[in-house]
Design a protein that fits this description.
It comes from Uria aalge (Common mure). This is Anoctamin. GO terms for molecular function: chloride channel activity; protein dimerization activity. The chain is of the alpha+beta class and about 725 residues long. Helix content is about 60%, strand content about 5%. A 4-stranded antiparallel sheet has the order 2-3-1-4, with helices on both faces. Strand 2 and strand 3 form a beta hairpin. Helix 19 packs parallel to helix 21.
Length: about 725
């Protein structure tokens, strides 16, 4: 009994004798028997079939994938095959076994002939070690046993946790830098010259923020908001954005080195995935003919068109969020509650962020279905191609789902709304939002903070609770039944496998994309951490804290709450590396745009070095930003308001608004074009400098460590020497 181990378990409902489903099940099991599989049946509320592959299958695998020269030296040598490899081979054969009806296991599961198919969590030493030393909350700061993870879950899972651990480790440095920048911003909370001017502007009357029931307001009323804005928007933000651009590059280059070291230790550095696939095809069916690479320009054009349609839908949803913010602002300003009237814009931003999070949750499920459908249309040749195609599509959809609204806030909010007397309106009624006189960067800060906090609290809690509750309910519903005779077949009394198979069945189901979901979650987080980090310096800190828990959460799910994932061999993280490199480039562009467009850094520098008292009056005893607020405001005549705009109070005939326009015809001033040119020049300079630094960092840090290269050189030398020693005796005998 101790030696009775099973590679896979198939689960089926109890069907009527002679029914179509029962016939299809029997045909599939017969095909497995023809291939030499041992099959054991256990009956409970469901039918459980344990399958074990014959030794010959694994011997063929070892023979086909061994070095050709070593076969000649020792043709009879067979080492024990790892459990992860056994499971992977058996899974491949199960998925590719075809019945006489030309149906595979995937088709039979769709028709509910089989309900589940999974490898078993065995009570072995490695599993007990991982449960006690890895899948525990108390080990949150402990180093991960990557080698043990590999032995139990295979190389792909081990590489995911190695990457996640490395990402979290380097994220600690970015988190410290971001915290320093944020704390430095707090220290200037009360000392910013721009904030002081806003707080002292008790005589500066601003235009109403809406058409109905909105009074004129004093600029000094927004004193606290201005202080918060300049706590975020300061010189340290620019330095931090450059730092994060360099960090993203260094992280990826160091990961390439780390990955090379790890897979070299596993002897997988030059592993050929296609060769392994062909070997398993031949093991499953000796008559198998290799599938040819195919490409259809027509099909690709159709898929590209459908992808663009889906992107247009996601951008449309972002427009819907914009409309919500505009309408919510108008409604809040007309509320009977004084707090809502006074904080209408902030409340619209916060509720809009929550609504954005809800759309992310909903659209994530929709995006998955659409991406899978498009992959089916594309008809990729192998599972790896299917996974790569799915990865690109789902990441593209998720990127637009997560970032379309943020892109609007960062680069369009307050810049396409027109000006008093000629506002841009939605449906000719609601005015688009305006930026605060101290800038729009606080809106972006609030939006990112709320989304990241919700994603890292609610999403993670649900990620843990759903499989935990499902596991408990399964255990409650699936009570062991007493032994009895069903369908004329008698079950063995108290079979020792029964409890193990039932306990594994009661765990949450996994699929081919279970690990993919974890990768996607982390890559989207990486996007938040890098692309708009200039507006939210605390993003790396939140990501770092989240990842400490995420590692143990994923470990607990895999070890305790989910069925055993089918191990897969890999020597890198696949196409995710290209996705991360693309995000690194987007991070340079995004942060450059945030500083050049969203931030007030450029307008303040232009004023400081062109129009300030320090330049015009040669004053040395005053702050060079003195007078910046008045310089950034334009004057508007009340009589030029649109006819349907109701003005409840008229303090003077001239009011002010944030823009650079002439008082006569409201055309742009020379200062506007000066600032526009400076923004453009900074953007070009920043992006080219950051990309050059990225290229230098990529060149300076080699992808493959010298130790790895030396290991391969020594290994080649040793193999050649052994081959020469084997050849020499043969020549002497001849």
């Amino acid at each position: 009994q101790a030696e009775e181990k099973w590679d896979f378990v198939l689960v089926s409902n109890i069907h009527e004798v002679g029914s179509e489903k029962e016939t299809k099940r029997k045909k599939f099991l017969d095909e497995l028997s023809k291939k030499g599989f041992t099959i054991k049946k256990i009956e409970d509320k469901k039918l459980f079939y344990g399958v074990r592959a014959p030794k010959q299958i694994f011997q063929k695998y070892q023979w086909l994938l061994r070095n050709p020269d070593s076969r000649l030296q020792n043709p009879d040598a067979h080492r024990d095959i790892p459990v992860t490899t056994r499971i992977r081979i058996v899974n491949f054969i199960l998925q590719n076994t075809v019945t006489s009806d030309l149906e595979k296991l995937h088709d039979l599961r769709k028709k509910r002939v089989f309900e589940a198919a999974f490898p078993l969590h065995e009570k072995e030493e490695v599993r007990e070690f991982l449960k006690e030393r890895w899948a525990r909350w108390r080990d949150i700061f402990s180093q991960q046993p990557i080698e043990k993870i590999r032995c139990y879950f295979g190389e792909k899972v081990a590489l995911y946790f190695a990457w996640l651990g490395w990402y979290t480790y380097l994220l600690g440095f970015a988190a410290v830098a971001g915290l320093v920048v944020f704390v430095a911003g707090i220290t200037v909370f009360n000392s910013s010259q721009v904030s002081k001017e806003i707080c002292e502007a008790t005589n500066t009357t601003m235009c109403p923020l809406c058409d109905q029931k909105c009074p004129f307001w004093l600029l000094s009323d927004t004193c606290t908001y201005a202080k918060v804005t300049h706590m975020i928007d300061n010189e340290g933000t620019v330095l931090f954005a450059i730092f994060m651009a360099i960090w993203a590059t260094v992280f990826l280059e160091l990961w390439k080195r780390q990955r090379a070291t790890v897979v070299t230790d596993w002897d997988l550095y030059r592993w050929d995935e296609e060769e392994e696939e062909l070997a398993m095809e031949l093991i499953n069916n000796l008559q198998h003919e290799p599938q040819q690479y195919q490409h259809s320009y027509f099909r690709s054009a159709i898929i590209l068109l459908l992808v663009l349609v889906m992107i247009a839908v996601l951008i449309g949803i972002a427009h819907g969020l914009v409309i919500y913010r505009v309408v919510a602002t108008a409604l809040f300003t007309q509320s009977d509650l004084e707090f809502l009237r006074e904080q209408a814009n902030t409340m619209a931003v916060m509720t809009g962020a929550v609504l954005h999070y809800i759309t992310i949750v909903i659209m994530t499920k929709v995006n998955r279905r659409v991406a899978l459908y498009l992959c089916e249309l594309e008809k990729p040749r192998t599972f790896s191609q299917h996974e790569n195609s799915f990865t690109i599509k789902i990441f593209t959809f998720q990127f637009f789902t997560n970032f379309s609204s943020l892109i609007y806030i960062a680069f369009f909010l307050g810049r396409i709304n027109g000006h008093p007397g000629n506002y841009v309106r939605i449906a000719g009624r609601w005015r688009l939002e305006e930026c605060h006189p101290s800038g729009c960067i606080t809106d972006l800060f609030i939006q990112m903070a709320i989304i990241m906090l919700l994603k890292q609290t609610i999403s993670n809690v649900m990620e843990y609770l759903v499989p935990w509750i499902s596991h408990k309910l399964h255990k409650k519903w699936q009570r062991p039944k007493k032994r009895r005779v069903m369908l004329g077949e008698e079950e063995e009394a108290e079979d020792p496998c029964k409890r193990q198979w039932l306990s594994n069945y009661q765990l949450s189901e996994v699929n081919a994309f279970s690990l993919f979901d974890e990768f996607l979650e982390m890559v989207i987080q990486y996007s938040f951490t890098t692309i708009f980090v200039a507006a939210f310096p605390l993003a790396p800190l939140l990501a770092f804290c989240n990842n400490l828990f995420e590692i143990r959460l994923d470990a607990i799910k895999m070890m305790r709450l989910r069925r055993r994932i089918v191990p897969r061999k890999a020597n890198d993280i696949g196409i995710w590396l290209q996705v991360l490199e693309a995000i690194g480039i987007l991070a340079v562009i995004g942060n450059g745009l945030v500083i050049a467009i969203t931030s007030d850094f450029i307008p303040m520098q232009v004023y400081k070095y062109t129009y300030s008292p320090c330049m015009t009056e040669n004053s040395t005893g005053v702050d060079c930003l003195t007078g910046y607020i008045n310089h950034s405001l334009s004057v508007f005549r009340i009589q030029d308001f649109e006819p349907h705009t109701k003005v409840s109070e008229m303090l003077t005939h001239l009011e002010e608004y944030r823009d650079y326009r002439n008082a006569d015809d409201y055309s742009y001033t020379v200062q506007f074009w000066h600032i526009f040119a400076s923004r453009l020049a900074f953007l070009i300079l920043f992006e080219h400098a950051a990309l050059c630094v990225k290229l230098i960092a990529a060149w300076y840090v080699p992808d493959v460590p010298k130790s790895v290269k030396n290991t391969f050189r020594v290994r080649k030398h040793t193999d050649l020497r052994k081959e020469l020693r084997w050849v020499m005796p043969q020549q002497c005998q001849g």
